[in-house]
Amino acid sequence: MMTALAILRALWRFFCACFQWVLAHKRWSLIIVLVLYGLFQTWQANSLANDLNKADAQCTAKVNKVQADFDEYKARQKEANEKAKTAAITQEKTWAEQLLKVEQDAGKKIQDAVAAASAAQLANRGLSEQISRANQHLSTASKQTIIDYTIANGELLEVCTAEYRTMAEKADGHAIDAERLSQAWDVVESGVKPST
Fold first, then answer.
1. DSSP assignment, residue 25?
2. Is 1 exposed, middle or buried (0-12, 13-18, 19+ CB in 10 A)?
3. N or C: which end of the chain has fewer CB within 10 A?
4. What pLDDT is attached to residue 59?
5. What is the DSSP code (8-state) at residue 196?
6. C-beta separation of 171 from 160 below 8 A
7. What is the mean pLDDT of each run of 10 residues along the chain (196 residues)?
8. What is the rounded distance in angstroms from the CA atom of residue 65 to the CA atom of residue 52?
């Protein structure tokens, strides 16, 4: 306990001596205080500048990381856009080729139908002429000839009726196919998968 008291007394005497020296040497005391204050301010400014440099380095690193991520994102987007454009061009080309083929096939079918219609019209004209000649000779024909003519007309009507029935069935099938194709096209355009 004595040594602690002795240390306290020594410290007290040192502070008293320092205070008396300061009072005796006011100019030097002021210079020393200003030098100490200047040193403290220099140390504080350097410390703050160091903290500012660290914060600036961290901020720059974060900005560079975000910029790199953004550049990578832009590169991926550009690649995806190029792939989408290529896919769209390929799909459009495929559709154009398919459309051209369908139009060529339709043109051929139209030509075939026109040729068949012309042939049917020629056959019809020939049949009309035969019927007209037969009607002219009908008034002078015998009873058996009239009976044979009537039987032939009945058979002809049966054949025509059968052909009309076949044509009606084909037309109905064509109408059903056209409706199904129209509905399928609507599904393709909407992009919705039909339920199975």
1. -
2. exposed
3. C
4. 94
5. -
6. no
7. 84 89 82 90 94 94 94 95 94 87 82 82 80 77 83 85 86 82 72 55
8. 20
62-82: b (≥16 Cβ within 10 Å) or e: eeeeeeeeeeeeeeeeeeeee
Q: At what angle do helices 26-138 and 2-24 cross, to 10 degrees?
A: 90
Residues 6 or more apart from 29 whose CB is under 8 A from it?
Answer: 21, 22
Pair 134, 149: CB distance under 8 Å: yes
Q: How far apart are CA 142 and CA 144, in angstroms?
A: 6
Q: What is the DSSP letter of 191?
A: T
Tokens of 178: 């056209």
Tokens of 1: 């306990």
Residue found under tokens 């590169």: 75
Helices 26-138, 143-190: crossing angle, 10 deg rounding: 180
What does the chain come to in residues?
A: 196
pLDDT score at 42: 94
The whole-number pLDDT of residue 152 equals 84
Question: N- to C-terminal Cα distance for the chain?
Answer: 100
CA-CA distances (angstroms) from residue 95 to 57, 92, 98, 163? 56, 5, 5, 38
